[in-house]
């Protein structure tokens, strides 16, 4: 897999100035509809070095749903971006964690600057697509499309890198690097071409609108 080298491309931006292998190591293979919980768990590991089990968190949210606290659409099913922020705030309250989260509508042109900001937090992006419109997602520089499906769907990942020089299969420009729970660890992120990323991210999700972005941040000591 191709490694990062800041000497080669000064335009590259990475989350919290981490290397690709450091970011990719946070990937853990998901089971079931748990991509949001994996993204939240990876964010907390990045910000607090705190291990959270995504499957256990999913089960906890299901139990709370049955008690009238709705942080996913249905037990075992989807989590909207606003609900992702709600889950982080629930964790902060119940575990006394110095983190916060907020939902906003993002701008793809500003995402590289967000990655370059050491205080910018961890960005969660949710991609949505219709039947036959799934965006290609590649692992490292492999030409294999890991999102080869004809079904409609959605997926939440952590945006971890922007590298305009990143190439898939030696020729396809894939600048958007993502922490994706389709593999356990490894030294490579998943990558998307710019048109595919923008198209899937700007899908208008009911209740959230286009370009849904959740930012998870560590609170400053005087904000606790």
Structure commentary:
It is a single chain. By secondary structure, the protein is α+β, with helices and mostly antiparallel strands. The chain has a single domain, classed as Phytochelatin synthase, N-terminal domain (Cathepsin B, Chain A, Alpha-Beta Complex). Helix content is 27%, strand content 21%. It has six helices and ten strands, in the order E-H-H-H-H-E-H-E-E-E-E-E-E-E-H-E. It has helices at residues 20-24, 35-48, 54-66, 81-95, 111-116, 194-201; strands spanning 13-14, 99-105, 122-129, 138-139, 153-162, 167-168, 172-173, 176-179, 190-192, 212-218. Strands 1, 2, 3, 4, 5, 8, 9 and 10 form an eight-stranded antiparallel beta sheet that branches. It has a two-stranded antiparallel sheet with strand order 6-7. A hairpin with a 3-residue loop joins strand 6 and strand 7. Helix 2 (35-48) packs across helix 3 (54-66). The termini are far apart. The model is unreliable at 1-8 (pLDDT under 50).
CATH superfamily: Phytochelatin synthase, N-terminal domain
In whole angstroms, how far apart are the ends? 41 Å
- CATH architectural name: Alpha-Beta Complex
> What's the number of helices?
6
Q: Structural class from helices and strands?
A: alpha+beta
Instruction: Return the CATH class.
Output: Alpha Beta
The structural domain count equals 1
Low-confidence spans: pLDDT under 50, at least 5 residues?
A: 1-8
The helix-strand sequence is: EHHHHEHEEEEEEEHE
Q: In percent terms, what proportion of residues is strand?
A: 15-25%
Number of β-strand runs: 10
Largest sheet: 8 strands, antiparallel
Cα radius of gyration in angstroms: 17 Å
Mean residue pLDDT: 93
So what's the overall shape? globular
The CATH topology name reads: Cathepsin B, Chain A
Helix content: 25-40%
């Amino acid at each position: 897999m191709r490694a990062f080298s800041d000497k080669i491309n000064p335009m590259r931006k990475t989350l919290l100035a981490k290397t690709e292998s450091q970011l990719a190591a946070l990937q853990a293979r998901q089971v079931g509809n748990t991509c949001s919980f994996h993204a939240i768990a990876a964010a907390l590991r990045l910000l607090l070095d705190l291990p959270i089990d995504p499957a256990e968190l999913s089960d906890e949210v299901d139990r709370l749903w049955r008690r009238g606290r709705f942080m996913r659409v249905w037990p075992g099913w989807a989590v909207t971006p606003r609900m992702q922020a709600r889950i982080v705030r629930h964790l902060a309250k119940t575990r006394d964690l110095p983190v916060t989260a907020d939902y906003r509508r993002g701008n793809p042109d500003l995402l590289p600057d967000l990655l370059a900001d050491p205080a910018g937090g961890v960005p969660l992006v949710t991609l949505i697509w219709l039947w036959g419109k799934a965006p290609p997602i590649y692992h490292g520089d492999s030409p294999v499309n890991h999102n080869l499906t004809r079904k409609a769907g959605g997926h939440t990942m952590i945006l971890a890198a922007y590298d305009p020089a990143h190439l898939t299969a030696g020729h396809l420009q894939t600048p958007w690097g993502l922490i994706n729970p389709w593999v356990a660890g490894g030294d490579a992120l998943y990558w998307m071409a710019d048109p595919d990323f923008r198209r899937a991210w700007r899908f208008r999700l009911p209740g959230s609108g286009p370009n849904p972005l959740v930012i998870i941040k560590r609170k400053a000591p005087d904000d606790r």
